[in-house]
Amino acid sequence: MRVTINQILIVTTGMAIDGNDKTAPSSTPGLDAEHAAAGSACLGCHQLLDPTRSILSSTWSWYYYPQSDPALMQQKGLFAFQGVIKPVTSIDDFAATLASHPAVPAAWVQKLCYWANSTACDVADPEFQRIVGVFQSSNFSWNALVKELLSSPITTHTALTATTAESGEVIAVTRRDHLCAALDDRLGLTDVCGLDANAKRTQSPVPQIVSGLPSDGYGRGSPIPVLPNQPTIFYRAGLENICEAVAAMVIDAPANPSMPNAKMWSSAQPNAAIADFVSTVMALTPSDPRSAPAAALLEGHFTAAVKSGAKPTAALESTFVAACLSPSSIGIGM
């Protein structure tokens, strides 16, 4: 349960019990006095960890059945972490105390910063603090936070921020969750990567390939996510195979009842398809100076493929793969 409490604190506040917290609890219910005796090196962590853990042990057994030990049931917890000290007598009390912790707003803005920017934002950045304020004033609306952060110069780099000045602009590979969300959203596909455990798997090799791609994650006990940002030959090969599989779904393909909103392109209208590849797959709007050169390159790719003997369907599929593997498609921060 100490592990569980520490993970709960990481998820909610973005911080772990690490020995640096100067919070002094008023009492220490549940303290392991033998392991963390007064004056010992272990006391600093356990005087915060054990009392907070007590709310779990008074509710559940060590194997998470309802607690039946009278001594443990009567031993209520004391939340003590990062300046907040509050008695908790139930799981509901514990949840309410966590939700009202002053570290929560900034922690969740920072989590989204990591996801969007592939690196941390500077918490002292005035723009970061402004976004935290918007999150709080919106009654912690997740949609409001996403909109505010993704349109902010802290992410778009359209203006200099303290975060950019400190960390620069990180260009990272499109990790699994970014890639799968983009494929579904841009192409109208339905869980093409098979990430929804409750949904029926698509009949394609994509889910199997995706399982080997780098993804966002956390190491046990670490408040900082593990974010693979650099490409490898395995990543490049996996993406090419995914793009080829998706191309077969959207080029001259029969309608798929499981994906009724999927975009479809015909090799009989290659120019219209290529225009969509640029704007939809490569995410380059017509006003982007890269848009016209990208279209010209894809048109040249299609023409060369047909001249070399490829059938129009295969040529357009190959053109789709070229767009799918473009930097603006497989990179974050472009």
What topology, given as strand order, has the largest sheet?
1-2
**Helical/strand content category:** mainly alpha
Residue stretches low in confidence (pLDDT < 50, at least 5 long) are none
Strands, count: 6
Work out the count of structural domains: 3
H/E series: HHHEEHHHHHHEHHEEHHHHHE
Tally of individual helices: 16
Shape assignment: elongated
Helix content: 40-55%
Give the radius of gyration.
26 Å
- What is the CA–CA distance across the termini? 43 Å
Strand proportion, as a percent range, falls in: 5-15%
Q: Note the main sheet.
A: 2 strands, antiparallel
* Rounded mean pLDDT score: 93
What does this structure look like?
The chain has helices at residues 2-13, 43-57, 70-74, 91-99, 104-117, 126-137, 142-150, 153-156, 162-167, 176-187, 206-210, 233-250, 270-281, 291-307, 312-324, 327-330, and strands at 77-81, 84-88, 172-173, 217-218, 225-226, 331-332. Helices cover 50% and strands 5% of the residues. The chain folds into three domains: 2-99, no CATH class; 104-167, no CATH class; 173-332, no CATH class. The chain contains 16 helices and six strands. It is elongated. The protein is mainly α. Helix 12 crosses helix 15 (312-324). The model has no long low-confidence stretch (mean pLDDT 93). It has a two-stranded antiparallel ribbon. A two-stranded antiparallel sheet has the order 3-6. Strands 4-5 form a two-stranded antiparallel sheet.
In short:
This protein has 334 residues and is mainly α.
